[in-house]
């Protein structure tokens, strides 16, 4: 993630603009992680994903 900040600075942006982009990237990653968690929880709740031994299996 530091690459966004440094890249913006090297590209001529101000530190404030670079910081805003860095925060945007952080918030976007957190949002994607949250959606992924909700999807996995929904799949588990519907019983489509089960754990057998050390493996995960999907039911069709």
TrEMBL record:
Keywords: Membrane, Transmembrane, Transmembrane helix. The keyword Transmembrane applies. The chain crosses the membrane at residues 28-49. Pfam families: UPF0014. It comes from the Bacteria. This is Putative ABC transport system permease protein. It comes from Saccharopolyspora shandongensis. The lineage of its organism: Bacteria, Bacillati, Actinomycetota, Actinomycetes, Pseudonocardiales.
